[in-house]
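Task: sequence in, structure out. Protein: Claudin.
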Amino acid sequence: MASGGLQLLGFVLAFLGWIGIIISTAMPQWKMASYAGDNIVTAQALYEGLWMSCAMQSTGQIQCKVYDSLLKLESSLQATRALMVAAILLGLVAVFVAVTGMKCMKCMEDDQVKKMWMAVFGGVIFIIAGMAALVATSWYGNRVARAFYDPFTPVNTRFEFGSALFIGWAAASLAILGGAFLCCSCPRRETSYPPSRGYPKNAPSTGKDYV
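Result:
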């Protein structure tokens, strides 16, 4: 029962982490500027994400523009996109594999060892997905920090960490933690011996022969 509870907890955490990775990838707030230079009357904040850039006007309206060409983007942004998309796809595979190996499911009940190994394999895929998302978000955040502290970067073009980065870090951590819990359900090698049976002792010979 304890291992089953740990397995369920791991799947829930990893699944929530996978959902968080999807949300983080879709959000445009990967980096944000609190002001837009001298044009502070018409734009209060600027956001940039993996797929679009947005500007929030003083009236509260948000206008977003999708990046026109993939080839015009920086190679680092394209790599970040690829890592996040790979994390989402790996998480999708991990969901199906881990569900197959869950003890509460009816699949593969005839072979409990293989069933447990499926859960472990799903946990490993969740860990890989979480690591991909963690590398992508950390790499992007490092670029934002380096540009912010670069003295040659104009003040009105400096960006800070956006909310999508924090969601991505938290989601990647949940995916890794949940995958680790799933890996804890690894079947242990136990050698089972048949129970020893007591054999009746030979009765002492009384010297009497029975016909």
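Residues 39-43, 190-196 have pLDDT under 50 and may be disordered.
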